[in-house]
Amino acid sequence: MKSVKVLGTGCANCRTTAALVEAVAREKGAPIELEKVEDLPAIMGYGVLSTPGVVIDGVVVHAGGVPARSKVESWF
Amino acid sequence: MPAPSSAVTTFPALARWLLALPVAGGVWLLAYSHLGEFADALTGALQLSRATHLGEAVHFFLFDTAKVLLLLTGIVFVMGIVQTFFAPQRTRALLAGRRVGVGNVLAASLGIVTPFCSCSAVPLFIGFLSAGVPLGVTFSFLISAPMVNEVALVLLFGMFGWKVAALYLAMGLLVAIVAGCVIGALKMERHLEDWVQKLQSGQALAHADEAIGWVERFAAGWAHVKDIVGKVWPYILLGIGLGAAIHGYVPEDFMASFMGSDVWWAVPAAVVLGVPMYTNAAGIIPIVEALIGKGAALGTVLAFMMAVIALSAPEMIILRKALKPTLIATFAGIVASGILLVGYVFNWLL
Fold it and tell me: Are B137 and B180 in contact (CB under 8 A)?
């Protein structure tokens, strides 16, 4: 089961990203543990420069803007 | 089946883009050079004569809406592609360890082409600092990025002409550079929140740059167009509608300048009014249109526009997580003063 973290301080783009990730994972039948990280020090700990950011199993796979659907699909 | 590497650009996709772009470009040029005929034809089809107020207003509306939408689409597409060359990581690398002065100018200029979303303000800010970008230089970037963006410039150019757009650009960069220099000179590093100061001591923020091919760049440009135009078109219609009404119905000599350059308190009033307001670049355009239509001095109106965009309550609240109140107050105060000064100077110059 993949651990997926969506990094963001709570703006619309971050929420959209989380919803997108959830929807795609469900479509693909991939079991994930989704967590929204809104705490700034924690977000900075991943070293991302722009939010929304996506971290899968501890690796930053995306930062900045809502990821394209094709990109999200490539993660699962 | 593993996903194809994004660095490998599949030929068919690239070929499609390389064929579509010149065609689209040709169509764009054709449309742009025939704007007048388009407006004439449509006004005629609506059975309106340009000699009437309504006809004149409608013609203006059609002409300007088509013009602005064309410009916006074209330029935002190009900017979307340019932005793929200036990911924040690259901007940060370009700015790390730069001398004050040069660094500020570079930072302010990069603010124009680096993609920026206001919720990324803090991660970007901290990320820059921890890579060795001086505090003042980082601020120059933070001021210029939301304020001097291609949407504001395109809208100003399309609706008010290149002089107004150039003025806004110059004013914006000037405020960003000078304010950044001043804040840097005040050496306020210890007014950063404690956790940020700890982070500053050498955190290697390694994030591998994604290899990106031209197909992705073109796609990013197109996505940017859909995003921006999708968000901004109501404001354009509103702004131009307002301008059309003024153009068609307000007689030429009715330019009452109650916000004119001879009222000394106009600029401070504009800045004070603008700071607590918040909207993006497009939202303020209808108001700018109305003000200029009423004869307000250009320097005053642009100062107002800058105050609204550059200083916003949401951004201050987000920044509070990384900056202590003194630093936020200093930041807001210096930027407001900068805008004030620039507003006065340009009113005086024009």
Answer: yes
